[in-house]
Amino acid sequence: MEIEDIKLENNTKKIQEQEWFDMPEFVQEKLEPYAKIIIRVDNKDDLEDLAKRLNQPLTQKTKSAWHPYRSHFRETRQPEWTTHEE
User: Fold this and answer.
1) Domain ranges of the chain
2) Are 54 and 65 within 8 A, CB to CB?
3) Is the C-alpha dihedral spanning 60, 63, 68, 73 positive or negative?
4) Are 76 and 84 in contact (CB under 8 A)?
5) C-alpha span between 52 and 21 (Å, rounded)
6) Burial category of 65 from C-beta neighbours within 10 Å (exposed 0-12, middle 13-18, buried 19 and up)
7) Residue % of the chain over a pLDDT of 90
8) What percent helix, strand, coil does the chain show, rounded to 5?
9) 27, 79 contact by CB (below 8 A)
10) Closest CA to 47 of 37, 57, 38
11) 19, 46, 53, 85: which is deepest, by most CB within 10 A?
C-alpha cells in the first residue's frame, strides 16, 4: 500500500467518524423462540395434514415455521427514534 493510499484511507475514516459523531446507537434485538421442535413426516399426505392442522403453508422445502404463523422477515415499520436527555 502506498503512502497516498494510507493517507486517503485515514482521511476517509476521519470523515466517517465526524459524520457519525453523537448519533444514537442502533441495537437490533434478535427474536428468539421460546422452544424449537423438530417434526418429521413420512409422506406428502402427512405433510399436507400437518399444514392444515397448523393452518400454515408447509412444503418439502420448508425449514422452519412460527406458531402461530408469522413471517420470518421483520415487519416493515417506521423506526422509532429516542433521545437520551440528561
Assistant:
1) 32-71
2) yes
3) negative
4) no
5) 52
6) middle
7) 35
8) 35, 0, 65
9) no
10) 57
11) 46
